[in-house]
Write a structure and sequence with these properties.
The complex is a heterodimer. By secondary structure, chain A is an alpha/beta fold. In chain A, helix 1 packs antiparallel against helix 2, helix 2 runs antiparallel to helix 7 and helix 9 runs antiparallel to helix 10. Chain A is globular, with a radius of gyration of 21 Å. The relative contact order of chain A is 0.09. Chain B is globular. The longest helix of chain B is centred in the middle third of the chain and has 15 residues. Chain B contains 9 helices and 12 strands. Classes of the chains: A alpha/beta, B alpha/beta.
Chain lengths: 436, 251
């Protein structure tokens, strides 16, 4: 498989030479070489031990089709949180669709554009940031993405600009995506003192299709900036989704992530946040809902490299049937990072006897004056609460739904944007109606 | 309204109720008193259908229905309400949402139309006055972080909203200071009516100064060993539970 994939990669890297800058071409070639050496991670690779990537590694994946195959705005309406006027970049099977995208008025200097467009018009910005935050050496999947990406979204908010509306990067797969791979590459740069809210969605119009999404998102949060980043993964339940988000935070910045995973046969998301200076705040919330044979895998890593920073992480999962979840949360605290305040929580609710969770918090602390805690739980619905609800007239099945919803709602409440929070609420309730 | 005959129940293989007989007519208030471990709370929980208890004998007829054959939610829908000794915390569900869900489930079961949140707020306003409460309590998660007094007051608020025919108060006075006790008791008294019955389970006579019962029963080792009028509670207070236990031992 690796060879086929690389042939594709070579072909596309070749195509990119024609329009891409030299610096990028060198990075992409290096990434392709890197992947040629490593191939996909093996089962003995600690980082991938519980992640069954066999179907990806052994699959034969063609390039995604290049026509957006008659997708209409009406079809996308369910994915726009009731706000079609928000700035939205739409990608159909990985390809940017200007016709389906929405460009509303933006403050002066703000860039919301496709990667190809940004490469043409914002070369200096991209040279500073693109591929600089998430190195190809980080993971074979990132190497493949770097070698192969064609499109993605770029959001650039200049210093001290406050974006009063969210920006939405919407990746849609259609029936034509069957058997194909896409490597979306996104870049979010929020400069010094700027504020923004960015939503990244992976959705499907063809729920039964098997395809592979391999996105990488790089985030640069400047000094004193504020960024809310919401990631919603609702791929086809027959698809594979392996994604990486890498965030670099500067002094006094605030980054808040919410990551929802409810689609894909196998979903893996790595969230890496590096705190590059003092007084940084990082909030990471996650929710995964799995059913059938789904596997949802979240790996988070937070690098406390400097003193006086705070990180707060809560990931919750609701698992039904024979589904499985993996949570691995790393917190690294260097000797310099005194007064670090880091808290990590992973809670799992099992709705069936056959569902399974592998949860592993990993704290590596080399400073002595810090406050770092972690906790992981795997449990069932509280029988006392169930009886309490039933004793008030709520039938058993509805009481179970109510309590399951309540478990999930505790993290959904952390989504700052009300329309997005309401939509996530609705999605959870809908899933519970039909059985998680 | 309620007819309990030779009711026996056990938990974890240990028999706790050893033949309870009790008849409650509409509008009556029955107090069940007794020392710790006598089976008072077990009786309350068995009537509400708690799955931890196994009924091993006897019968309970409620409004001509076999109560023991009904699921907990069916009992509630038929008008049985248990005010918990230890109300359960439900983080993530607002008090208002929970109570409206219960109210609508009960209406649905009775073939009535569900009420929307606006109409429910109007209903709540009126009921909140009964327990001298502000509406802000409704946006907090059910019992989560409530003080002991707030939890008990919340039980009485639920009682007021759900309007049961048979309300069982399980040690509603435990852990209450005198102000909270007064508010809770006043709420209950306002809910007394000629077709609503109460079973008030309590360890202490104190509550019965506020909620004056028609009948008092003393439970000891899983049986009712003495029944009488409200004066029995005063006698118990004066002489202690050893008095009835000793009398039972002699019998």
């Amino acid at each position: 498989m690796s060879e086929t994939l690389l042939q594709e990669t070579d072909a596309r890297a070749g195509a990119a030479i024609a329009e891409g800058p030299d610096w990028l071409e060198a990075v992409r070639r290096a990434a392709a070489e890197r992947f040629a050496q490593t191939g996909f991670p093996g089962s003995r690779d600690e980082e991938w031990r519980f992640t069954p990537i066999g179907p990806i590694a052994q699959g034969v994946w063609r390039a995604a089709p290049t026509a957006s195959a008659g997708v209409t705005r009406e079809q996308l309406a369910p994915f726009t949180f009731g706000h079609p006027e928000w700035n939205t970049l739409v990608f159909v099977n990985g390809l940017y669709s200007e016709a389906l995208s929405t460009a509303s008025a933006l403050p002066a200097g703000v860039v919301v554009s496709s990667l190809a467009e940004a490469l043409r018009s914002d070369g200096a910005l991209l040279e500073r940031h693109l591929t600089r935050h998430a190195p190809a050496e980080g993971s074979p999947f990132t190497a493949v993405n770097t070698a192969s990406f064609r499109e993605g979204g770029v959001v650039h908010v200049p210093a001290n600009v406050d974006l009063d509306q969210p920006v939405h990067l919407l990746f849609v797969s259609t029936a034509a995506a069957g058997g194909s791979v896409t490597h979306p590459r996104n870049l979010i740069v929020v400069e010094r003192g700027a504020r923004a809210s960015v939503i990244e969605s992976y959705v499907t119009l063809a729920p039964g299709q098997s395809y592979w999404s391999n996105p990488v998102t790089e985030v640069s949060a400047g000094a004193g900036s504020w960024l809310e980043h919401t990631r919603i993964q609702r791929e086809s339940e027959a698809a594979y989704h392996v994604g990486l988000t890498h965030v670099d935070q500067q002094r006094d910045s605030h980054y808040r992530s919410f990551s929802m995973a409810m689609g894909a046969a196998l979903a893996r998301h790595n969230l890496h946040v590096r705190l590059n200076d003092e007084n940084v705040e990082t909030l990471m919330y996650g929710l995964y809902l799995t059913r059938g044979e789904q596997v949802a895998d979240n790996h988070t890593a937070i690098f406390h490299d400097h003193p006086n920073c705070r990180s707060w992480e809560v990931y919750k999962g609701v698992l039904d049937d024979r589904s499985r979840a993996v949570f691995n949360g790393k917190v690294f605290v260097t000797p310099e990072a005194q007064k670090t305040d880091a808290k990590q929580t992973n809670r799992n609710l099992l709705l069936s006897d056959s569902a399974k969770v592998n949860t592993k918090p990993q704290l590596e602390i080399f400073a002595d004056d810090v406050k770092c805690t972690h906790g992981a739980t795997v449990g069932r619905l509280d029988s006392a609460a169930l009886f309490y609800a039933r004793s008030r007239g709520v039938p058993a099945a509805a009481a179970e739904r109510l309590l399951t919803y309540a478990f999930a709602a505790e993290v959904i409440d952390e989504v700052a944007l009300p329309p997005v929070r309401e939509e996530l609420d609705r999605l959870v309730l809908e899933r519970l109606e039909t059985g998680v | 309204m309620l007819n309990i005959k030779d009711l026996r129940a056990s938990a974890g293989g240990v028999e706790i109720l050893k033949g309870i007989n009790l008849a409650v007519r509409p509008g009556e208030v029955h107090a069940i008193m007794g020392p710790n471990g006598s089976g008072k709370s077990t009786l309350a929980q068995v009537l509400a259908g708690h799955p931890a208890y196994e009924v091993t004998g006897g019968s309970v007829t409620y409004l001509e229905q076999d109560l023991l054959d009904m699921e907990p939610e069916e009992r509630a829908q038929a008008g049985v309400f248990l005010a918990f000794q230890y109300p359960v915390e439900i983080p993530g569900v607002s008090n208002a949402y929970f109570l409206r869900a219960a109210y609508n489930e009960i209406r649905k079961a009775r073939g009535m139309e569900e009420v929307d949140s606006m109409d429910f707020i109007d209903l709540l306003e009126e009921k909140l006055k009964l327990v001298e409460w502000e509406s802000e309590i409704m946006s907090r998660a059910v019992n989560a972080g409530f003080s002991g007094g707030e939890k008990k007051r919340n039980e009485i608020l639920q009682l007021a909203v759900l309007e049961p025919k048979l309300a069982i108060l399980d040690e509603t006075d435990s852990g209450l200071d005198i102000d909270a006790l007064r508010i809770v008791a006043a709420g209950v008294n306002k809910l007394r009516s000629q077709d609503r019955s109460f079973i008030v389970v309590t360890h202490y006579q104190r509550l019965l100064n506020y909620i004056v019962p028609d009948h008092v029963h003393v439970l000891s080792s899983g049986r009712i060993v003495r029944s009488g009028g409200k004066e029995l509670a005063l006698e118990l207070e004066a002489r202690g539970y050893e008095w009835v236990e000793a009398a039972e031992a002699m019998a």
